[in-house]
Amino acid sequence: xxxxxxxxxxxxxxxxxxxxxxxxxxxxxxxxxxxxxxxxxxxxxxxxxxxxxxxxxxxxxxxxxxxxxxxxxxxxxxxxxxxxxxxxxxxxxxxxxxxxxxxxxxxxxxxxxxxxxxxxxxxxxxxxxxxxxxxxxxxxxxxxxxxxxxxxxxxxxxxxxxxxxxxxxxxxxxxxxxxxxxxxxxxxxxxxxxxxxxxxxxxxxxxxxxxxxxxxxxxxxxxxxxxxxxxxxxxxxxxxxxxxxxxxxxxxxxxxxxxxxxxxxxxxxxxxxxxxxxxxxxxxxxxxxxxxxxxxxxxxxxxxxxxxxxxxxxxxxxxxxxxxxxxxxxxxxxxxxxxxxxxxxxxxxxxxxxxxxxxxxxxxxxxxxxxxxxxxxxxxxxxxxxxxxxxxxxxxxxxxxxxxxxxxxxxxxxxxxxxxx
Length: 421
Hints:
The protein is an alpha/beta fold. The strands form 5 sheets. Strands 4, 6, 7, 8, 9, 20 and 21 form a 7-stranded mixed sheet that branches. The protein folds into 2 domains: 3-124 and 161-197 and 387-419, Quinone Oxidoreductase, Chain A, domain 1 (Alpha-Beta Complex); 206-354, NAD(P)-binding Rossmann-like Domain (Rossmann fold). The longest helix is centred in the middle third of the chain and has 13 residues, at 198-210. The chain has helices at residues 19-28, 70-76, 128-131, 138-141, 192-195, 198-210, 226-237, 251-259, 274-285, 313-322, 343-347, 370-379, 398-406, 408-411; strands at 3-4, 9-15, 43-49, 58-67, 94-95, 100-107, 119-122, 176-179, 183-185, 218-222, 243-248, 264-267, 288-291, 297-300, 303-308, 323-331, 351-354, 360-363, 366-369, 389-393, 415-419. 44% of the residues are buried. α6 crosses α12.
């Protein structure tokens, strides 16, 4: 049903935004989210060509599981501004899906490190090496390939990552392609369900390594989804004994954050005003809330480090207010065009750190890709990802997959994936 190698076609989930349909969906979306996967939306199941290998150093892959990333979900639900700069580093129509665990299906003539049948996860950045640009840019040379300066140049079309371009395809399809350098062989002791989580957990781990908490620090995690869980889990996996607090929406999130090592959780819900939310946080950290105008609050005192794993204007504003004077905010969530109160940034002389995906990390006197460190921590028993893949759907049930995610309070969804036959 999904692919035909004789005709070189496959059925894939295509994403192609259109200005008029985007506007209509945005208006209708206030009434029902169903419009975001209707015929009016940017998302559709279609028969398309199986992507060819761009060069002899590329491979074709068959996903076993393809995860739905929070950034993908935000795009489908049109939560980002249409003028975001991310659009200039993408090309359409795109087959979404960069989280994956895959089987190597076909290799180019010059591929030497993998062979058909190998089980891998694919690092998604389409940086200098996949683009076969020499010499590589200064960011790629330093191991910061997600910051590559050549996403719009070289012999390949525009695209910063697999799943957000018009030529590689993505894991929401029976096949996609990747450069040999992007592949990481999965150890036999790691299951498919853990392997498909490599990318989001690596993103959390990279954020923690950008500002690794010390044992004596007071640390807050804002956002208790999978990335927030990953931040908590990797802080503990790296050995930090910091005092760790998380803000949660419901009891299931609190239970999971405690599983991954938080000392305290602060319950909140969407119906509560800012004053109520800030008062609960202040109570936990011995801070002081001072009312301002129009329902806003100032926050005195706070945490040494705050990890914002939500990525909205409000969450970044809250994160900066929750940080103590001279503290640090790590922006883990993929924020875009938004409204932020920046007064705490300069008034409290905060350090604001951005994070983007993965890198060549410097850990334990070694240099290694973030994926490899995730594998190592799992194999050492320091990182337990069991049970985080909660729902699996075939591609043609994508509406059910998105319903499961947006109603996660009722479904207890954590990671929802598409599975291939």
